[in-house]
Design brief:
This protein has six helices and seven strands; from the N terminus they run H-H-E-H-E-H-E-E-H-E-H-E-E. The protein has a seven-stranded mixed β-sheet, with helices on both faces. The longest helix has 13 residues, at 118-130. The chain is α/β, with parallel strands linked by helices and 258 residues long.
Length: 258
């Protein structure tokens, strides 16, 4: 079973790339110049067929307040997280989930913390080094590509960040190969993607569940679990890849759903 190695993402971060800013698209139809403000690497995929939330920063609530609600513990339990697993924390920010995932998977597990914010990555690298989290690695991602190693992860967490993904079809398509494949042949034992988000308008930093489900389905994922958890900050959804991933030109973008 292929797994990423810690030394591939060594700390501290010494080389960061410049990320191109992209503008949200609010309609389903592509205008003649629709690709002008998109990364070239995303243009083979359909553009977002919905508004995209602006980046909200990395500290929407204090860690103490989130722990009082039992947020991380409940989410990890619902995700079926166990010691020894390999997980990714996408949009890791200041590391609230990163440090708790690291504790949960233990010394035999691995956590890859990823973000597209270079400053957040540097601060998180300092925190990981300061707390001597030997089972955590750090990686800089891109708006249209999480840049994860293939066939590596039991769980990939997208917590309060998916509504900010500006290239959802490219992003989710490139996420798929990093999920561990099911090799059992019986009960499913492959990897899953865990999404925590809020059911509210995009301009208020949320995404309606129907829109989320549609976008994941469009690139070959199956919804396997969903629950409303307002006391934990929103809703919780689990996805797994099914079948073959559609080619970029075969992906049908979702109509805007509310």
């Amino acid at each position: 079973m292929k797994m990423f190695q810690l030394h591939r993402f060594a700390l501290p971060i010494v080389a960061l790339v410049t990320l191109a800013a992209t503008a949200p698209l609010s309609g389903c139809k592509r205008l003649p110049d629709a690709d002008a403000n998109r990364p070239e690497t995303a243009r083979a995929y359909p553009p977002a067929s919905r508004p995209v939330s602006d980046l909200a920063g990395n500290q929407w609530s204090t860690e103490t307040a989130r722990d009082k609600r039992g947020e991380a513990e409940e989410i990890m339990k619902a995700a079926g997280l166990e010691p020894g697993m390999t997980v990714a924390d996408i949009g890791a920010g200041e590391g609230y989930y990163t440090v708790r995932l690291a504790d949960k998977v233990g010394a035999d597990g691995r956590v890859l913390a990823q973000d597209i914010d270079e400053d957040a990555i540097k601060r998180l690298a300092d925190r990981v080094a300061r707390d001597a989290l030997d089972n955590v690695s750090i990686k800089l991602g891109a708006p249209d590509d999480p840049r994860l190693p293939e066939d590596s992860f039991d769980r990939i967490f997208l917590v309060h960040m998916y509504h900010e993904v500006r290239e959802p079809y490219a992003f989710l398509s490139r996420l798929r190969p990093s999920i561990k494949a099911d090799r059992d042949g019986g009960d499913y034992n492959g990897g899953e993607v865990i999404v925590v988000d809020v059911d509210r308008p995009f301009v208020q930093h949320g995404i309606p569940p129907k829109q989320l489900f549609c976008e994941f389905e469009a690139v070959g994922y199956q919804l396997i679990g969903y629950m409303e958890r307002p006391e934990l900050g929103g809703y919780f959804a689990r996805f797994r890849p099914v079948g073959k991933a559609p080619l970029p030109g075969k992906i049908k973008p979702c109509e805007l759903k509310q």
